[in-house]
Amino acid sequence: MKGSIRWRMMLAGAGAILVALALSAFGLAILFDRHVERIAQADLRSRAIAVAAMIEPRPNATPTVRNVPLDPLYEQIFSGHYWQLQLGSETLQSRSLWDFTLPMFKGPPAPGTTRMLTLSGPKGEPLMAYEQNLLIGDGDTAVPAQILVALDRSELAMARRGFMADLLPYISTLGVLLLAASFVQVTVGLRPLAQVAARVAQLGSGQRPRIGNDMPAEVVALATQIDQLLDARDHELSRARHRAADLAHGLKTPLQALLGDARQLRDRGEDELADSIENIAAAMRRHVDRELARARIQTERASTGAEPATLIAKLVEVLTRTPLGAMIDWQVKAAPGLRARIDADDLTEALGALLENAMRHANETVWATVERAADQIRITIRDDGPGVPEADLTRLTQRGLSLDPDGEGQGIGLAVVAAVADAAQGRLHMRNAKPGLEVTLTLPAAA
After folding, report:
1. Residue 7 and residue 302: Cα distance in Å, rounded?
2. Residue ranges of the domains in the chain?
3. Is 50 exceeded by the pLDDT of residue 408?
4. Model confidence at 403, in pLDDT bands (50, 70, 90)?
5. Which residue windows are transmembrane per the record (predicted)?
6. Does the first or last residue of the chain, that is N or C, have fewer Cβ atoms within 10 Å of its Cβ?
């Protein structure tokens, strides 16, 4: 989770969604407050007009106030709804104020002016108040009137709390839906990376030679870089292989010359010196052959796989043409169509070494079987010869070790087979079958 791009994007997306929803809820609360205040102000203006309608002007006389019912809330003491009228020197107010008087504008107000105020109520609560100044009558008999209509702001706060209580479930539901959408978005957006991983796995299994460019534009650059690295690696390995081959071929002529000198020395009767030169030349030849085999194994990796059954049939056909192979009863049981994830040349060399080794040590029969076990191909080669001493079983794959009693082996055959198996991510197992030696080469199955 710590190094996961998916979870990083999910956490970042979740954080952005939560911040956006919080800001949205805060913004909606502010807009709701403003909307409610506008409605409250409009309501206060309407109620101020209703209070003004209670004033009854009289020609050449002081205006009087009619007792016109406005709202039952104005009759309930400390209800949070109040009105107050200053008509000349007379002050009238709603029953809801009881014995409390709202502070009013000092001095002669300008007729026709209005303003919104914030006042303290009978209990010290904040009030939203609307003040309107009028001039009742004409001329010198005109009487100034100051109307004050107020509303307890706690009702506005209560309305805001109710709005938020109704809003939070919808905000929460929206948040869950947005998180689910973010998860889907991240999953779909990262799917090309899974495609890259699948193709890299196909590279390892030999199903594809390269990743290719038929991918989304955002990952094409990555795929191209990987393909270029693979091309550069193959180029360098190819150069290394050719250098090793050139070196090996360059040493063959001097080695052959040394062997010729050894023969001349032996003809002169200097057998000890001839044996020393031949042993040194043989050791050098084993090293050269080993490096040639290693170079080929490391550079010619599998791309499409190989069929062990077909290769065994071809190798047996070649071996039966030799004098020793013609005397062997070859028992081959290989299911056709089974493919191992290995280069065909590498498998040919490994099977050739195993079959030739079995042929040299067999009395009459060599068995070769190919079968599939789960996702692996198991190749078993067995002879009916004397087998190998148990103490030497673990040493057979050591380079330079030969148990051939005739001394014809160079001691690199099984070592090369082991190297081939290791390079192909396979296993090599040997045991005495009594009679004979049984060698099992297990390789990954090709897709």
Report:
1. 37
2. 58-153, 235-299, 308-444
3. no
4. very low
5. none
6. N
